[in-house]
Amino acid sequence: MSSSAFALTCIRCSLFLRILSPVEVCEQSPATASNHSSAQLREKTAMEGWKSHVRAGLFQRDCTQKDPFSGIFNTLSKLAEQLDLRDTLWDEVQRPSSEGDGGLTVDHRELYLQLRESEHITEKLSQTVSDLTTVMYLKDAELQYCHSQVSRYRKEAVTQAREANLLQASLSEFEFTLASQSKELAALRLEQWELKEGLAAAWREKEELLERWMDEKKEEAERVNRHNDTQERWHRFTRRLNKHHRREMLRPSEQTDDW
């Protein structure tokens, strides 16, 4: 490699290192450990925020400083490569030929340089075409794969849309059923409340009837007792009356006997 090519390479390396130096600083993270998980979490959150801030600053710097010079770097690389090729070809031209004719003339050397450069450019273009063809095939295969994925996802989307419609219909049906059952439940609760009220009223009426029946039974028992007492008194009175009547009947017979 010639001195000019070496100098250009050094310049490119220095520029590349200057561009990447902030990234290396960015990737350094403080290794401070904490005994408490909460402190570690706060430190990690702060570090993530700092990293995001630095990344945003580097991205902004690349957009304003690095990206505008990317074309210059590419052109510089191509020119350095052409310079290396010309130096190599020039060294070949400067060497005397094996036939001892003293080398080529200036025009022949220039034509030879142009021819070799054209051959080199042709080789590079052929390689570039081959690489682009390979990339094109890969992109074509990737595109076909993407199309197949899109078709599959479209089918899945259609299927999921149908399932979603069915689920929506089922949900609407369930909501209608739930509303109907809620109304029926409210009606049943109202009917249950009415039945409870009726049962309570029936129990109260039963208690009242039982109390009345007990009172009537008590009164009837009292009437029966009074009737029995009356019958007992009547029987005693009848016996006394019969006894008195027999006595009265016996008195005339005794008087007759005395006569």
TrEMBL record:
<dbReference type="Pfam" id="PF08614">
    <property type="entry name" value="ATG16"/>
</dbReference>
<protein>
    <submittedName>
        <fullName>Uncharacterized protein si:ch1073-143l10.2</fullName>
    </submittedName>
</protein>
<feature type="signal peptide">
    <location>
        <begin position="1"/>
        <end position="25"/>
    </location>
</feature>
<dbReference type="GO" id="GO:0000045">
    <property type="term" value="P:autophagosome assembly"/>
</dbReference>
<dbReference type="InterPro" id="IPR013923">
    <property type="entry name" value="Autophagy-rel_prot_16_dom"/>
</dbReference>
<keyword id="KW-0732">Signal</keyword>
<dbReference type="InterPro" id="IPR045160">
    <property type="entry name" value="ATG16"/>
</dbReference>
<feature type="domain" description="Autophagy-related protein 16">
    <location>
        <begin position="54"/>
        <end position="225"/>
    </location>
</feature>
